[in-house]
Amino acid sequence: MEPQPPATPSDIELRRAAGAFARPVAWRSIVQLVTSFGPFLAGCVAMHLAFGVSVWLTLALAIPTGALMVRVFIVQHDCGHGSFFASRRANALVGRLCSLCTLTPFLSWGRQHALHHAEWNNLDRSDRGSDIYSSCLTVRAYLDLSPRQRLLHRLVRHPLLANLVLPPLVFLLLYRVPFDTPQGWARERRSVHLTNAALLAFFATLTLLLGWREVLLVHVPVVTVASILGVWLFTLQHRFPGARWSGRGSWRYVDAAMDGSSWFDLPPVLQWLTGNIGFHHVHHLNQRVPNYRLAAAHEAVQRLRVVPPLGLRAGLAAARLTLWDEARGRLVRFRDARA
């Protein structure tokens, strides 16, 4: 890690405020397991039952069921951070169970995600451990690319491609191979193959019992909806109006959490479905805070340093903010890039 500027007293207070909630509560974790897996599995069953009535009804039910898969993914996310249970073994077991619903290899994704937490919103490190959703070029670096490179850079980040087409392909296909897992990560690479084997056994059995058409029209739409919603949330967690990105050795942990991670102020139902991940600034301030304690931690942190909320409308428009303009000190769209 590169040296960072020293922490200020206010930084220490903020981290202490969040740290007071960085302990799981066993009964709340168990309740969330029931209220996450239960509704999601019920949604899948309802889709299978509806298939004999109407394919269109089945596809319509994919929307709420996909949203419920996002809630299961948040449980897996917390298990990856070791924040859902006090027991490391319990986190690993539940995380692996979640991965069979989310199609996301637990160990491999978790370690890759840890890289994100090491260097988010850091312009000096944006080429390492990042993806197109949480990385950012400066306007200068973008304009220094060749015309062909600029076209490719813009194409894969176009909202229609990046937020609608690519997410299902990532979850359905890309996560089936250890595409960016280093050779030295033996356990993580093995987790990809073991997850695939378990998924193959499950869906092969389901296909023999129900037929390939029903399995395809139930589970692929669910993953499609969940991946689109999840990736959209991930996109606006660090690229939104007012977000701060730092470079040239000025990156600071607390500032990157408070000013470079969003507080997405969602209606209560959406907040429940997304497992409170809208309090993303608090999550980056202390990743060991369980998702069901993020709201309380947010209130404690907000008393020390006010973070403005990101509304639903601004969140919908945030996907187009893809470049950091060092001269203006803000994120801009591709069409706003100028030397």
From TrEMBL:
E.C. no: 1.14.19.-
Alphabetic keyword roster: Membrane, Oxidoreductase, Transmembrane, Transmembrane helix
GO terms, molecular function: oxidoreductase activity
Domain of life where this protein originates: Bacteria
InterPro entries: FA_desaturase_dom, Fatty_acid_desaturase
EC class of the enzyme, as a word: oxidoreductase
Fatty acid desaturase domain span: 55-303
The keyword rRNA-binding belongs to this UniProt entry's keyword annotation: no
Listed name of the protein: Fatty acid desaturase
